[in-house]
Amino acid sequence: MEHSEAHMNREPEDDARDIGDSCSSSTDRRSLLRWCAWPILAMGSVAASLPILGFLIGPLLQKRPDRWVDFGPVDNFPENATRLVDLLNPLRGPTDGMTGKMAAYVRRLEGDAFQVLSTHCTHLGCPVSWFQESGLFMCPCHGGVYSEDGERASGPPPRGLYAFEHRVRKGHLHVRLGHLPTLQNPGRSVDV
Ligand code: FES
Predict the structure, then answer these.
(1) Which CATH number fits domain 67-177: 1.10.1040.20, 2.102.10.10, 2.60.120.10, 3.20.20.60?
(2) Residue 112 belongs to what H/E stretch?
(3) Across 105-122, average pLDDT
């Protein structure tokens, strides 16, 4: 009762002052929130862009050089024949799993003359298969065909199979592996 009487005795200026106080406190809250939001937004943007920056800059910062891998004695590879060699990428990381596996087609012409070809089609990268009977590499994805020396024979591939750099040392075939050969960084035979 006393409370309602006190309320009834209030002057209009008191009400105006109360409204002003509550407005100014809500304005303070809003501006405080605005000032807090900017740093939070900025930190969020930086956090969100870190993976993208890492993806773009990471390879430049830790460029790992290719390694020479011993494929074994040259006599393991019969002359005038092509063999598929499965191996692990020497640059694989502990979390690479299946993606750390790689393969190459080794074609021995005669003596120490070899070709070491990528298994990836130069159209869209599907793995090509070697067919001894026809002497052709064929791509199952869109029908790309390569001759036994890796040159493009027909279909959508724009060029022949990429070749890995290789050399023969002390009767062993060594192949430089790590990054896949590309148009900018084609492999090549060192000694042949
Ligand atoms: Fe080989 Fe398309 S990926 S022909």
Answers:
(1) 2.102.10.10
(2) none
(3) 95
pTM more than 0.85: no
Which residue, judged by its Cα, is nearest atom 3 of ligand 1? 124
User: Which residues line ligand 1 at a C-beta cut-off of 6 Å?
Assistant: 121, 123-124, 126, 139, 141-142, 144, 155-157
Atom of ligand 1 at shortest range from CA of 142: 4
For residue 139, what are the CA distances in angstroms to 29, 49, 69, 91?
Answer: 66, 38, 26, 26
Mutation pick for ligand 1 pocket among 138, 142, 146, 159 (CB with most ligand atoms within 8 Å): 142
At 59 the pLDDT is 62
102 and 88 in contact (C-beta within 8 Å)?
yes
Contact 178, 89 (CB under 8 A): yes
Name the residue of 122, 139, 159 whose CB sits within 8 Å of the most ligand 1 atoms, as the mutation to test its pocket.
Answer: 139
Pick 156 or 183 by higher pLDDT: 156
Cα(45) to centroid(ligand 1), Å: 39
The full length of the chain comes to: 192
Strand order in the sheet with 136-138: 129-131, 136-138, 145-147, 152-154
